[in-house]
Amino acid sequence: MEDMESFTDTLFVSVPMFGILHYGISLKRYLQIKLKQG
Known about the structure:
Elements: H1 2-37
Transmembrane segments: 6-25
Keywords: Membrane, Transmembrane, Transmembrane helix
């Protein structure tokens, strides 16, 4: 079960990182649109 444990560790690290990355990209895109309109 050691493989499973390392898999869940990887999941717990990569999921929040993916969320932060996705949020950052969305925020950047949103700001670019707002600046173009302003």
